[in-house]
Structure formats: structure tokens, C-alpha cells
User: What shape does this take?
Amino acid sequence: MESSQTEPKADPVKPILFYIKDLPNICSLSGLGCSLLALYFLMTGVYAAAMIGMIWAVAFDWADGLIARRLSGRTGSDRKFGGQLDLLIDIVSYGVTPAVLVLSYSDFGPLFLPVAFMMLVFGVIRLSYFSTFGLSQDEKYTGLAIDNNSIFLVFIFMFEGFFNGFMFSVILGGCGLMLAILNVSQIKTPKLSGKPINVVLLAVYTLFVTAFYGSKLAEKALF
Assistant: This one.
């Protein structure tokens, strides 16, 4: 006997590059570009520029979510594709980039390889867990959201000049490992990026960080 209910139509399959023009995805890819610049400057030792790239990657990441929630006319496949794209970019921005920061500042010393590896392992586990289970019943993250890693490390790096090279390498590695442990802990943390006021606060912080490290770049250029 035929059912009187019609099956919901699946979204039509679109060409791969079609999704590039989706505004939230443009923001996500801009964040990926910032992370690439951060990695480049980390490997070339221009840490002030790397910090600017890292914080702008967070800013674009938060912006894409805010835009996606407010944009009308997006299909289920648009949202699913954007979610997967965001997840993969997060691995680069919040997993690979902080790990490379710890390695680069320590002159790629083998002593810091286990730290960088644990940061990567806990980072991908954290992202896989969130991708599978999402927010808790009270709309909170389980574990520290991984974007906080870059926000915190960029702040910590402002105090680099107060320590010698090896000591700050240890501090940086210790902070990275501590954040990685918090990422996979059972603590409940609010979703900061979900509120417009927090996005505004991040924008202010991003501009402050850009001005702070931009002045350092200007000083080096002049002297």
C-alpha cells in the first residue's frame, strides 16, 4: 500500500566550488589564510606577525558562525558543508598552529616534540568529540573550546620579553599542554562565540592585539 506522505526532497548536489561563494565559508577560508600566514611567520621567526595571524583566524572563525546563523536561504547541505569546512580549518588554526608555535620558539628542539604531539592529539580528539556529540544538554561545551587556545597563547606571548629564550619556551610549552588537557577535560564551558556581545569583545581584543604586535613590527622596521 502506498503511503500518503511524500518523502522530503533531498537538496540537489551542487558543484564543489559552488560552496566557495557562501559568505560564511568565505569567512572560514579567510581564517585559514590567516593561519597559513601565521605558520609562515612562525617558521621564519617573525613572531609578532604570527600572533596577528593567529588572532585574526579566531576572529574570522567567530564571524562565520555569527553570519551563518543570521543568513537566510541556506539549505541543509549548505550548513553541513560549512560545518565540515569549519571543523577541518579548526584543526589547522587551533591544532597545528599552536603546536608549531611551541616547536618554532624552542628552535624545534626535540624536547618539545612530545608537547607539540600531545597538543595535536588532544586537539583532534576535542574536535572529533564535538563533531560527534555537539553541545551538552545545557548548551555548553564539554571541555575548553579549542579556539580559546589561540586567544590565550597570543596573550601570553605579550610577556615574551620578560624571560630568556629557554625559560619562555618552557612557559609556552607548559601553557600549550595545560590548554590541551583542558580541551579534553569534563569541565563545562559556555559557547562564547554564540553571543553577539562576545563577538564584539573579540573584535576589540583582535584590534588591540593587532596594534600591540603591529607596533613591535614597526619598531623592528625602524631600528
In short: The chain has one domain: 22-222. The mean pLDDT is 89. The longest helix spans residues 76-105.
